[in-house]
Specification:
Elements lengths: L2 H14 L14 H7 L5 H32 L3 H14 L3 H22 L4 H10 L7 H11 L4 H23 L4 H22 L12 H9 L11
């Protein structure tokens, strides 16, 4: 791998790292409701929830969104990007989850701009969010940045999946709680699952963007009114 190509990939890995301060450590996207009700009480419960999340909500949601966003950029069709923003926003039923992803997207845009400067389409996306035309989704931000650094759709799908899995693991370590080593073992197994989802994600029709399963959505909705909690969503 050429040095310039390696440097570009490292820049994407920085954005994907769970330490990149965009607020994801404040969100559990429904996991905390499962902890509160009891299904997640140990590493086995957490890993089962994480696998269900990736096989459904990630596959049909932000994972598919990264692929569709990169296809839109390959075609030079920014209007398709804005349509994807509207489609995923409308498909996100839980208010907390919808607002949480918008906050993360805005923070990601601001920090990418601060660290890397002008990234073309991301500046236009930021402007549309400020004007209220678009709502904002971090998967679109991530895909646009990865595309600007020369990553392919499969790499972007897997790398963004790692970003979510790594963050959720750290959140579970402090919320369940889990041991750090047990969390990393669960994360390692989940990475293989994410990679194995790509063949299906690569052929899903865009009409399925935002499809979900009732259990995960209900947990995200219920989180808004549950008792004491660590996370915003």
């Amino acid at each position: 791998m050429a040095r310039a190509e390696l440097s570009r990939r490292l820049e994407v890995f920085q954005i994907a790292d769970s330490t990149f301060p965009i607020g994801t450590f404040n969100h559990s996207y429904g996991m905390e409701n499962y902890i509160w009700r009891g299904p997640i009480a140990d590493v086995e419960g957490f890993e089962a929830w994480l696998a269900a999340y990736f096989r459904t909500q990630y596959l049909f949601g932000e994972g598919l969104l990264t692929r569709l966003a990169m296809e839109a950029m390959d075609a030079g069709d920014e209007e398709a990007l804005w349509d994807l923003d509207a489609q995923i926003t409308e498909a996100t039923v839980a208010r907390e989850t919808r607002e949480g992803t918008r906050r993360v997207a805005r923070q990601m845009l601001a920090l990418v701009r601060r660290v890397y400067g002008d990234v073309g389409v991301l500046d236009r996306y930021r402007d549309r969010i400020r004007e209220g035309i678009c709502k904002g989704n971090p998967a679109i931000v991530f895909a646009a940045f990865a595309w600007s650094r020369g990553l392919f759709a499969e790499e972007t799908f897997v790398t963004y999946g790692y970003s979510i899995a790594s963050t959720m693991t750290q959140n579970a370590v402090r919320a369940v709680p889990l041991g750090q080593a047990a969390g990393q073992e669960a994360l390692h197994r989940t990475l293989g699952l994410i990679e194995g989802l790509w063949p299906r994600a690569s052929v899903l029709p865009s009409a399925l963007l935002g499809a979900n399963v009732p259990g995960l959505e209900l947990a995200q909705i219920a989180h808004e009114t549950q008792g004491p909690r660590l996370f915003m969503s």
